[in-house]
Amino acid sequence: MSDETTYLSELPAGAVEEHLEQTVALWGEGHPRDVRLRETLRELAAWGPQRLRLAGLIDGAGALVSSLERFGLRLQGPDGPVAAIGLGSIFTPEPERGRGLARRLIRLVMEEARVEGCSAVLLFSDIAPEYYEKLGFVRYPAQRWTVPLSSLPQAAPLETRPAADADIGRLLEWYESSFPASVLRPIRDLESWRAFRRKNSQSPDLVLLEDGVAVGYLNLARAPERLWINEYAPARLSAERVWATAARHGAEAGAAEMGGWVRLDPLPPAAALRDRPRAIPMIAPLDSCLELQGAVTHFDAIDHF
Ligand SMILES: CC(C)(COP(=O)(O)OP(=O)(O)OC[C@H]1O[C@@H](n2cnc3c(N)ncnc32)[C@H](O)[C@@H]1OP(=O)(O)O)[C@@H](O)C(=O)NCCC(=O)NCCS
Question: Domains in the chain, ordered, with CATH?
Fold first, then answer.
């Protein structure tokens, strides 16, 4: 084993396959290896390297010793939009751990992004956040709420229909207008909307209908025993009617509980809050363009990478 490593800003297909092999136990979600590889290569081609690529360190023998996914994105900050990157699937194979490889890789990716004009790096930590704090990341609130289905408001649920491709523009407008402009959050556009929906294809958007008129949207994800509200933008509706709609879907799915990530808007009255042990949003500034001190943030589960 050599201590020399080479940084690759964009992994070739063979190293992408190596990353998938290394991470299959953690993030493979039971998908057959060949299907996961085919889908990953298709997604990389569909997003393009500016929006999504894998970066990594190769040792002297050509083996992949640390790797990550790098998303190109924009963040809405209190003073306007800034270019940023997102980091996901950060992984070092067990025999290589504790040698500073992931730290080196993250620093190289961050420096490259800074040179390219990015102002910040976003990640969702699944490990103790102190690891990323040492690299300059600031952590933001990460709580989830749950409530027994029976204690959610049940009155006046809305009709729903699956969202079609032609709805995306409207859904995006509803999303963008559902919180104040100064809130620190990922900016979505049509391309990223489609890409993140492909990533979350098991939880399609539902258009909320009032007297047959589209008035907002809701995105639900089924988990055993529980129905998660991934996100919603009620436009001019009350949250109670969105919860009642979700409760009806939960009852149809046989779920006993409903839950979601805590957002800026009010929660159902009986909601129990817990800190999330995973998916903790963390942001590192790369320059002084983004005011992070005390920033209020908004992340929906769909933004998680
Ligand atoms: C986390 C991980 C990428 C670190 O890789 P690495 O190359 O060993 O990292 P480094 O050598 O730069 O850093 C080692 C440090 O990571 C710390 N670390 C490892 N796992 C950790 C965890 N779950 N929580 C917090 N810190 C952790 C080690 O304690 C060590 O700390 P030290 O520097 O104070 O001794 C690696 O342990 C891994 O692949 N884990 C499984 C996948 C994973 O959880 N990825 C992170 C998703 S957010």
Answer: 5-142+277-303 (3.40.630.30), 143-275 (3.40.630.30)
